[in-house]
Amino acid sequence: MFERESRMENGNQxxxxxxxxxxxxxxxxxxxxxxxxxGSVSEKSRKKVLEAVAQLDxxxxxxxxxxxxxxxxxxxxxxxxIKNDYCNALVYAIEKEAMKRDYNVLIxxxxxxxxxxxxxxxxxxxxxxxxxxxxxxxxxxKVIPDRYRHLYESQNIPMIFVDRNIIxxxxxxxxxxxxxASYEATKYLISLGHxxxxxxxxxxxxxxxxxxxxxxxxxxxxxxxVDSSLIVDAEYSENRAGQRLAAKLLDExxxxxxxxxxNNTLCGSVLLELKKRDMKTPDDISLxxxxxxxxxxLFDITTVVQRVDEIGKRAxxxxxxxxxxxxxxxxxxxxxxxxxxxxxxGTPRNEPGGG
Amino acid sequence: MFERESRMENGNQxxxxxxxxxxxxxxxxxxxxxxxxxGSVSEKSRKKVLEAVAQLDxxxxxxxxxxxxxxxxxxxxxxxxIKNDYCNALVYAIEKEAMKRDYNVLIxxxxxxxxxxxxxxxxxxxxxxxxxxxxxxxxxxKVIPDRYRHLYESQNIPMIFVDRNIIxxxxxxxxxxxxxASYEATKYLISLGHxxxxxxxxxxxxxxxxxxxxxxxxxxxxxxxVDSSLIVDAEYSENRAGQRLAAKLLDExxxxxxxxxxNNTLCGSVLLELKKRDMKTPDDISLxxxxxxxxxxLFDITTVVQRVDEIGKRAxxxxxxxxxxxxxxxxxxxxxxxxxxxxxxGTPRNEPGGG
DNA sequence: TATTAGATTGAGAACGTTCTCAAGAATAAA
DNA sequence: TTTATTCTTGAGAACGTTCTCAATCTAATA
Lengths: 355, 355
What we know:
Two copies of one chain form a homodimer.
Chain A: H1 2-9, H2 17-24, H3 28-36, H4 43-56, H5 62-69, E1 74-79, H6 85-100, E2 104-109, H7 114-126, E3 131-134, H8 146-153, E4 159-162, E5 172-176, H9 178-191, E6 197-201, H10 206-221, E7 231-233, H11 241-252, E8 258-261, H12 267-276, E9 286-290, H13 294-298, E10 302-305, H14 308-324, E11 332-335, E12 338-340
Parallel strand pairs in A: 1-2, 1-3, 3-4, 4-5, 5-11, 6-7, 6-8, 8-9, 9-10
Antiparallel strand pairs in A: 10-12
Helix pairs in contact in A: 2-3, 2-4, 3-4, 6-14, 9-10, 11-12
Chain A binds a DNA duplex (30 and 30 nucleotides) through residues 16-18, 26-30, 32-33, 36, 38-42, 45, 60-70.
């Protein structure tokens, strides 16, 4: 009683389930039943409890709930950087879906750095996060050291991969149909008459390798030899890699008539190089890129558009499935893409039909 | 013993401080001392504990720590949408700073919706989050209902505002020097000879009002009458408001020689309208906007650049100050901006010197 | 009225930490 | 050797929930 009153004086004090129970004149078990909406409670008790809750403006302590119930109502999203367009659209979609289920989202930027990814996964473990959505930094060549494998393989925390796969770790994966979409995009360029198509992408990522595979098979199908010097690799961390590599391609391959950009981060800086050289699409060169953006519309760039919303939604849905049933069999979901044809691709300038 | 062994078999089981204590042959109090690095522990005990920790790959349960210590090592960032360039750059900076202090970041999108902001603040309270950084939806005219005021005023959770202020709630605020920067930007346009300068912005936000104030005072100083029909208001939620409003201004004010865009979200769609009308900057119209972006560089748009990194950094620093000392006096920090002059502003086309 | 089934309730253990307190061990001083 | 001082240690309470279990109460049936 004494304590209660001293609390009342401080309008900001937070109340516990015991305070509610005392005020309502019932036990905390009964309060728990009303709050948690389980068991059976008489109408009279329920009313008293709800009144007390309202009067004290009581909110249950999620931390205590988490400790007791082993569920923190939290999912973590681990990715390179929230600044990346693909990633922030993904986080947006994930948070939206999570909210619908009263879950919150912890954001973990790895800055495309292995150590930070490991550190985040450790934190996630100790935080008892309920589930993890991971766009891993792990690139195709690299092998996860044994001492960290458990962070990826533990059955305790449901985890799914989005976009990038980690070879050797079996997890659900949700991604665009990279190979097929890339095959079709390349075929489109070929159908316009292009035979020398330069490619810019961060080769180390599984996604890009899939896209390259589609590129190669389209060329092969058309009987065009694959010239690996037309494929240039962008370090993810390099600032304005697109600009440097576009310049390299343009300098070394004067016969190149189209550029195909596989990473969404690269396109802007490729355009900067074109601007610098006063080259226009599609007259001077054709350009096709992955991932849509306001820029793409403003510059009329033909684009393979990923349905990031859909990927995010599926990721959350699948994660919740796994949270309910951790034994659910692993599988990969491929989300369709859309080739949005604008005006950046034309017939090759050296071709009879070209300008 | 039995239990331990059955746990060992399941390689994924997580261990508790009791398991470590048992394996090390000490009490959990001693383990706690080693983990938490306080009190005094003999070298012998310390070694045994560390070995046990390593062997079991023990990580402390943050939830239990949180319940006991009343600190969850979490800060929440509440903002309109992570998709917004300003916001995602801010979150990026905040997460980076928070990581340095071993704090994690909970992301809360309000979708510029009042109810969602309230809901998030309630969740934040029940989650025992240690601190909140808020870009509120609350617009200048609106008053927070009494029943929700405590969510903003509670002394329990340190909270600071970024970018937007809420009139009537006294909190720390960190923002750009909106009025001064806007005054100078306008002055720059005036110095080029413009007298009819259209303005597009979401008037309801305190930031925009500050920027308008700077705009007006620059005009007044130059003896130019302020024509309020040149200032058009963009609903935040409207898709491509910039395009519609640019069209409106261009249609209704043929004498307008410059457009001044106050929201970063609007510029892209303003450009779309210019593109549609085949108008070029600076020849057909001058354009000046807030917030930098790849687009601005590609289109050579003169821009008031906000130092979002710095704002984020200061926000976290200040929040931690408040977490240590909640009584610390409230104040506002204004971060300087930079007017990056590119090529989108020229002399008015109807002027003697113009095209 | 006695009996039974079902509804309602509260006491108290458990979740995994932190941290106080008092006791025991080790060392230094007398 | 005894006494004082400092180190080192473990038992157990506390944080705020959830949830089991047994007890009580109600109403219906025989």
